[in-house]
Design goal:
mainly alpha, Tetracycline Repressor, domain 2
């Protein structure tokens, strides 16, 4: 492509600014995919399932996104970048908690479970799965493994009779 380092720094202040913009770009791309699912007229648990799978597909299509978003060591000493990642995580946690609460009201998820805790389980499961996939050299089908995991999560969360 022929991009030189000086040319890059004409558009960005420094390396941190470049990383911040890359993180912003990645979060916008993933947010668009999630928003499309949230607009669908389907049950809340099906939305949760599709969001999980869509994120697996997203990371398979853009493995570098996982390397950037799930490597908090890279952001440890960079408060601006840490804030971008943290705010994204908090935003996702909030909408997942709301979606889980909606599923509980509809009787799809056990109402005795705490929505915020389930949102942590959802995010943590996805993060660990993607991290294992990445560290294994992408040695397994992320979407296929994701289907099994999200189905297990949703089964565990079902309302017990």
């Amino acid at each position: 492509m022929g991009i030189t380092e000086p040319a890059l720094y004409r558009h960005f202040k420094n390396k941190d600014h470049i990383l911040q913009e890359v993180c912003h770009y990645i979060t916008c791309l993933s947010r668009e995919r999630v928003e499309q699912i949230l607009q669908m007229q389907i049950l809340p648990t099906e939305k949760l399932r599709r969001i999980f799978l869509e994120m697996c597909i997203f990371f398979e299509e853009m493995p570098s996104a996982a390397a950037i978003l799930f490597t908090e060591e890279m952001f440890k000493n960079q408060s601006d970048l840490s804030e971008v990642i943290y705010n994204t995580m908090q935003s996702r946690h909030l909408f997942l908690g709301n979606l889980i609460q909606e599923a509980q009201k509809r009787g799809e998820i056990n109402p005795s479970l705490v929505p915020e805790d389930l949102a942590f389980m959802f995010q943590g499961t996805l993060r660990l799965l993607v991290t294992q996939w990445r560290l294994s050299g992408n040695s397994f089908d992320l979407e296929e493994r994701g289907k099994k995991l999200v189905d297990s999560l949703l089964l565990l969360w079902q309302k017990t009779l």
